[in-house]
What does this fold into?
Amino acid sequence: MNQTGQVPTVSLYGLSISRLGMSDTVQYLTQVINSRQPHQVITANPIMVMKALEEPAYMQIMKNAELLVPDGTGVVWAADKIGTPVQERVAGFDLLHELMKVGESYQWKVYLLGSTPEVIQAAAERLHLQYPGVTISGYRDGYFSADQDAEVIAGIREAAPDLLFVARSADTQEPWIAQYKDQLQVPLMMGVGGSFDVISGKTKRAPIMFQKMRAEWLYRLMSEPTRYKRMLALPQFAVKVMRDKGNMTKP
It folds into this structure.
């Protein structure tokens, strides 16, 4: 059950999606971090929703997360179709940066987990330069096996961060956080996908034109054509929403 408290939500196929905009989300998560209770934040997009509908275990992971923010444009659109709109899209990449900005005032500690050794080191260095008031209390790459999980968890606990950002594969990061949430004991844990690649300079974010058109997915597809199979979930989601209409609010 979602522990969203005062967060207004819209039900999308049984998933409680936050209706808060970026500013209110950051304000809420600041309270969460100060409460010291472990919270998993999932940046929900249509690909995740389709996966949840096909895989009960993934659906349960999303339901158990303390906060689902409307990251994907398709999720924002679906909420409009239901007649319970969200304030705005809350993109995970932007949310990471907004939390880092606030973190300077509170002198938060952040741990970065994921991507390649080169990328994660470069991302840590750039974030340190951009947000000197935040302490990067540790980082490591995402290439470790299940039998190394205990070692990774021990390293994170020793660093005692206020925020943990995890960038592993789409099929791995949310389940990993969910599995070890209680052991990690980090106030805020969030999967951030390819954010470290962009922060490190390895890849570029979609140009402003694509962002304004709500077509970052198209830019990613053009940049990485190998993503086409994963992207097939987007039109499938759109067709399903149009077909289901009034039934989307039901589990």
In short: The chain has a mean pLDDT of 88. Residues 92-106 form the longest helix (15 residues). Residues 30 and 102 are 8 Å apart (CA to CA). The longest strand covers residues 39-44.
